[in-house]
Amino acid sequence: MPRFIWCLPVLFLIFFSGSLQAQRSGRMHTVVIDAGHGGHDPGALGQKSREKNINLAIALRLGQLIRASLKDVRVIYTRDKDNFVELYRRAGIANESKADLFISIHCNANNNHTLQGAETYVMGLHKSQANLNIAKLENASILLESDYKSTYNGFDPNSDESYIIFSLNQNSNLDKSTDFAAAIQKQMEERVGRNNRGVRQAGFLVLYRTTMPSVLVETGYISNPDEELFLTSEKGQEYIASAIFKAFKEISGAEILPVKEGDSEMVSDHKPRQVEVSGQLIYRVQIAAEKSETTKGDRRFSRFQDVKMYMHGGMYKYTVGNETDLAAAQRLLDEVKEKGVKDAFIVIFRNDERIPQIEADKLLNK
Predict the structure, then answer these.
(1) Distance from the first to the final alpha carbon of the chain
(2) Beta partners for residue 319, in sequence order
(3) Mean pLDDT of the 230-240 span
(4) How far apart are CA 43 and CA 109, in angstroms?
(5) What is the DSSP-derived secondary structure letter of residue 256?
(6) pLDDT digits (tens, 9 = 90+) for 108-146
(7) Are 319 and 347 in contact (CB under 8 A)?
(8) 0.85 exceeded by the pTM?
(9) What is the distance of C-alpha 26 from the center of its chain?
(10) Which whole-number Å values give the CA distances from 164 to 9, 66, 125, 141, in the listed order?
(11) Domain check: are 80 and 208 in the same one?
C-alpha cells in the first residue's frame, strides 16, 4: 500500500487541524479568488498565450466587479501578479482568512483542438477518465514546488493510485459548492454563450485543502484556436468575469451597493480599485493594448493626436478622443478604422475609471 495512504490520518490533521470552521449563515463576507498557475508555472499553452495570464486577468476583473457592487464583501486574491503560489498555500490563504467561498480560475486544454466550452468542478471522486486527466493536469503544479513529496505526504499527481484518498473524504460543503457551480455554468451558457460542459467532480488538491464551499472553473479551452482568441480578448475576459459575478450574487445574499473605502483588501500590496456609481461618461476609442509601455515616438501613433495611455487588466492601453457624446465617439471610431486600426473599439470612462465592458456594451446597445 502506498505510503500516502498509511499517512491518511496525518493528512487530515495537516489539511484541517485548526482551520475547520462552521459556515456562516446568511450573507457571505469574504471571498477568495485564485488565479491558477503563475510565475514559472505557465499552465496550459495556447498558440499565442499562456493560461496563467488569462487566469489572472479574469480573476482581477471578477474581484473588481465584486468590490464595485457588493457591500461588505471582502475580496482576497491568492495572487494579483505573475508570481508562483504553491497549491497548499492557495488553500491556506482561504482557510486563514476564514473565507466563505473559494473560486479558482483556470483554462482547459486537450489534444483534441475542437473541444470547447466551460465546465466547473467541485471536490469529489472523478467519475470518468477525462475528469481524472484534468485533475492530473492541474495537480501537476505541485511538481514545480520544492520538496513536494514531503509537503503532500507522497502524493503523486500522475498516479491513479494516489487519487484513492479523495474517495475517503466526505465533503460537507459539496451541496453548496455544487449549487454555485451550477449557477456559474448557467451564466456561462446564457450570458456568455459558451458551450455548457456541465458541473463535474474530480480530485483537485487545491479544493481538497479548503474548508469552505469551493469551485474550480475551467473557463474554456486554450487549445482550441477560436476559443483561445475569445479567452485572450478583453471582451471575452469581461464576459466570463461577469458570468461568475452574476452567479456569485445569486448565492451570496449580499446587498448590491457601492463599496466604501476600506471594505476590501488583498493578500498582496495591490490596492483595491474604487468605482463610483455616478458621474459624467467620457467616450474614447482604444487603438492598442500592450504588455509593456511604448515610447512616445511609436510610429503607430503618429497618425493620431492626443494619444492617452491608461492601465487596465495589467496592460498598457492607448486611446484617442475624449468625447461626451456617443455619436461623436462613433464618428471618431469610423475615422480610426479608416486609418488602418480595424480592431479599434469604443471604451467608456466614468470619473476617470473605465467602466466594465458589460456595462459599456449596454450603453452602446450591443
Answers:
(1) 59
(2) 286, 308
(3) 94
(4) 9
(5) B
(6) 999 999 999 999 998 876 555 766 777 777 777 878 887
(7) yes
(8) no
(9) 25
(10) 14, 37, 8, 19
(11) yes
